[in-house]
Task: inverse folding
């Protein structure tokens, strides 16, 4: 059974960097048939995919256009986890952030396991 | 970019009744890469159905998905008390941005 355990601060000041980590058990961040995602949820934006990292002979990344200039999703193979870094945050980034595993099916990935969620508030 | 519109916004039913939730896409969904999730208060979404009609592991058979192209339906045949939650459809295509619907809240009448 795959489990994803999130960690990171729940309060970030405006203009600073939001950093979260998702520790994986029951799978490997380097698995070839999965991708690792960050998704957030807010009343104003609903569920919003932010970015992903995946390994297919080499590491790949994709980011949502809405955050592309501010986001980094990185794997950490030594700790079997991946991270989210979102720079220059504003109150609009206040949301519940989730990590999730995407499992490949004919080139597409459905989100079959999710972390518990981290409520992040951007406020001074 | 595909947009997903769910209806109704809120559905009020009683345990034992049948629930029908709709998800309409602004353009055709390739290869039926359409999933449904259930979310209870304070919890992460849980995958119920993928490929428009395949139940995920451990999901009771009272949940069924159908549809193709632009119109998809999640049916719960006989509502149990634990089924009252918010339901989201999701297009998990082969390339970003992987949109979600805005959700249908299923509440006890």
Result:
């Amino acid at each position: 059974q795959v489990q994803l355990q999130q960690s990171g601060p729940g309060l970030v000041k405006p203009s600073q960097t939001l950093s979260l980590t998702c520790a994986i058990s029951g799978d490997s961040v380097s698995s070839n048939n999965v991708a690792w995602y960050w998704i957030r949820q807010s009343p104003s934006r609903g569920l919003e995919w932010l970015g992903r990292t995946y390994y297919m002979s080499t590491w790949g990344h994709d980011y949502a256009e809405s955050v592309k200039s501010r986001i980094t999703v990185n794997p950490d193979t030594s700790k079997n986890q991946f991270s989210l870094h979102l720079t220059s945050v504003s109150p609009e980034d206040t949301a519940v952030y989730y990590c999730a595993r995407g499992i490949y099916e004919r080139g597409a990935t459905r989100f079959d396991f999710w972390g518990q969620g981290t409520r992040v508030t951007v406020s001074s | 970019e595909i947009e997903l519109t769910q209806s109704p916004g809120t559905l009020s039913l009683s345990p034992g009744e049948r629930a029908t939730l709709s998800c309409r896409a602004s353009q055709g969904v390739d290869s039926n890469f359409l999933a449904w999730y259930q979310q209870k208060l304070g919890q992460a979404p849980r995958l119920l159905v993928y490929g428009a009609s395949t139940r995920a592991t451990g999901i009771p058979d009272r949940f069924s998905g159908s549809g193709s192209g632009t119109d998809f339906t999640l049916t719960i045949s006989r509502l149990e008390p634990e089924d009252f939650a918010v339901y989201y459809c999701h297009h998990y295509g082969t390339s970003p941005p992987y949109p979600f619907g805005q959700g249908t809240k299923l509440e006890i009448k």
About this structure: The CA atoms of residues 29 and 77 of chain A lie 6 Å apart.
